[in-house]
From TrEMBL:
InterPro entries named among the record's database cross-references: Na/ntran_symport, SNS_sf
Name listed for the protein in its UniProt record: Sodium-dependent transporter
Localization annotation: Membrane
UniProt xrefs under PROSITE patterns: NA_NEUROTRAN_SYMP_3
Protein transport in keyword set: no
């Protein structure tokens, strides 16, 4: 039987590492966007409810499962789950806890490398005197590996590899290296966050301009923190809130199990789990809501924020907004903001390497060094396609299937295992063993009934979307290789036609009737208004792509607008899905060989 050769140096280090695992880019980038897209204050109540009845129970489940498996020398989910139930199936369910981390790390480290690059560009003054459009264009150029913003060929690839090497080097030092980064990174992250949050709180109307005369940072705060009780009946908002909880707490990934497996048998998990969870919530709900949205609203207005809320806001707008503070403060703010994102990213990405390393150490006696560098190699192989084909949608496939679907599936299955197969009686005793706090007994029944029911609802409600993704129903250009290019939907529902307003040999621009959301300050609610929107397509002359519509033509979605040689994004999306399936199959195969090895050594369970 494998024995533990590592343990956490201190309780503070463990809590900071666990919090660092949870506190990631989603706290500062995804949470504000989800809140804005789901009605601001309308999102907060479902979000907090989901935290209490799904987030906290899952933290209890994963901390206690990890410590339980760790007693038997298991430090990764395949054999942590296997130790909790009879039968060969559960070790393969546990594959999700390794697969998800490698797949997510593959694209997560790419985002992390953006923050590293933007720290560099903030220091050297790249964004000085850039307009908002130019800052947004910089991001587009950066993610196009054929272009370079620094004169370095393949800049995005270079920064990605540097970022991955840094992660791998720290991982090779084991838990001690992770703990040191957490002890340095988490205080710096919170310090940077507080500095920027204070600016968000004090900006007020001072950022208003002739172009955005109604800009007001307080509008952003009011929008986020004015409760809208009608959201309690909206399934869409509840699903979004539940999804954010997965992202923000890193549950359903297997990293918490791995970290907890290095605890001693009677170490507290109850207070540790709650402490790490609430530290994450403080960073997300307090700091995360006081930076991007108020600062953007303070310079661009709340209506602009509502209409343009997206993941890229942090990179496409914040450098421009910082320039409004003067060149010196812009550098400080840029370093604080992108440094904050970098530390948020690396404390999470480091956790993603530990399940693979723990498994390979337990089953094949691999050293920390070998485990870390093999993890880095797998991530590099899986991740380079997300860098090279970012614009073709391969990145989004990883994010959806590994960063969303996989989390929900694994969380549901581990909850069923914990409550009904391992048994809630044993599970509740395990949670309370060595506990430094008294957990309200109602959580026993929340774990038994409410949490699995909510997860099942999220799972079942998501199935139609899974089918749409596999069928590529989000595009009219489904063929991998085609001689014709069809117009995509103009408005969100694909009901309206477009009118050709500009044409050149290799470009065409359409106008169409669309709707957008604006904030009504009188009713303090979001309302929908009609407006005329525009969409432009650009084609490549070297591939003989030629526009076949003329100015004034009325074009419906799916009409042919150009001919030539086209390689559609559906090819890259399919490749992304196949890469993920191949990774899952590879890990299943490794788990199978590990099982055979255990049988040979006489330590396999039936």
């Amino acid at each position: 039987m494998s024995t533990k050769t590592e343990s956490w140096g201190s309780r503070v280090g463990l809590i900071l590492a666990m919090a660092g695992n949870a506190v990631g880019l989603g706290n500062f980038l995804r949470f504000p966007v989800q809140a804005v897209q789901n009605g601001g204050g309308a999102f907060i109540i479902p979000y907090l409810v989901c935290f209490l009845v799904m987030g906290i129970p899952l933290l209890f489940i994963e901390w206690s499962s990890g410590r339980f498996g760790g007693r038997s020398g298991n430090h990764s989910t395949p054999y942590i789950l296997d130790s909790m139930a009879k039968g060969r199936l559960w070790k393969y369910i546990g594959v999700f806890g390794i697969f998800t981390n490698i797949a997510v790390a593959a694209y997560y480290c790419y985002i992390e490398s953006w923050t590293m690059s933007y720290v560099y560009h903030s220091i050297v003054g790249t964004f000085s005197d850039m307009s908002q459009a130019q800052v947004a264009g910089f991001f587009e150029s950066y993610t196009d590996i054929a272009e370079s913003t620094t004169g370095i060929p393949y800049e995005a690839v270079i920064f990605y590899i540097i970022c991955l090497l840094l992660n791998t080097f720290i991982l090779s030092k084991g838990l001690g290296g992770i703990e040191k980064v957490a002890k340095i990174g988490m205080p710096l992250l919170i310090s940077f966050g507080v500095i920027l949050a204070i600016r968000g709180l004090t900006l007020g109307t001072s950022g208003a301009s002739d172009i955005f005369p109604d800009a007001n940072a307080w509008d952003g705060l009011n929008f986020l923190w004015t409760p809208q009780f009608d959201s309690l009946t909206s399934p869409k908002v509840w699903l979004a809130a539940a999804g954010q909880i997965f992202f923000t707490l890193s549950v359903g990934m297997g990293t918490i199990h791995c970290y907890a497996a290095y605890l001693k048998s009677k170490d507290d998990i109850a207070l540790n789990a709650v402490s790490a969870g609430f530290m994450n919530e403080f960073v997300e709900v307090v700091l995360g809501s006081l930076i991007v949205i108020p600062i953007a609203a303070g310079y661009l207005g709340l209506d602009w924020v509502i209409q343009n809320a997206g993941f890229g806001m942090a990179f496409q707008t914040m450098p421009y907004l910082f320039q409004q503070w003067g060149s010196s403060l812009a550098i400080i703010a840029g370093v604080c903001w992108f440094g904050l994102l970098f530390f948020a990213g690396i404390t999470s990405s480091l956790a993603m390497g530990t399940p693979w390393m723990g498994f390979m150490k337990d089953e094949f006696n691999w050293s920390k060094n070998k485990g870390a560098w093999s993890f880095g190699g797998l991530v590099l192989i899986m991740g380079l396609p997300t860098v090279i084909f970012y614009k073709e949608g391969l990145f989004d496939q990883y994010d959806y299937w590994a960063g969303t679907v996989s989390l929900v599936v694994f969380a549901f299955l581990e909850t069923v295992l914990f409550s009904y197969i391992f048994g809630i009686k044993k599970g509740w005793a395990e949670i309370n063993s060595g506990a430094d706090i008294k957990i309200p007994r109602i959580y026993k029944y929340i774990i038994l009934i409410v949490t699995p029911s909510l997860l099942a609802w999220v799972l079942i409600s998501s199935i139609p979307d899974w089918i749409d993704k596999v069928k590529d129903n989000d595009t009219n250009n489904k063929e991998w290789f085609a001689k014709e290019f069809h117009a995509e939907n103009f408005d969100g529902e694909g009901k309206n036609s477009g009118t050709v307003v500009e044409v050149s040999a290799n470009a065409v621009k359409f106008s169409f009737e669309d709707t957008k959301k604006v904030f009504d300050k009188v009713t303090e609610k979001v309302k929908v208004i009609d407006f005329t929107n525009f969409k432009e397509y650009k084609f490549k002359e070297k591939k003989n792509q030629v526009v076949v519509v003329q100015k004034g033509d009325i074009v419906k979605p799916n009409d042919i607008i150009a001919t030539g040689d086209f390689t559609n994004n559906t090819l890259y999306k399919f490749v992304g899905r196949m890469l993920l399936l191949s990774l899952f199959a590879l890990i299943c195969l490794i788990v199978y060989f590990a099982y055979k090895k255990r049988v040979k050594e006489g330590r396999a369970t039936l």
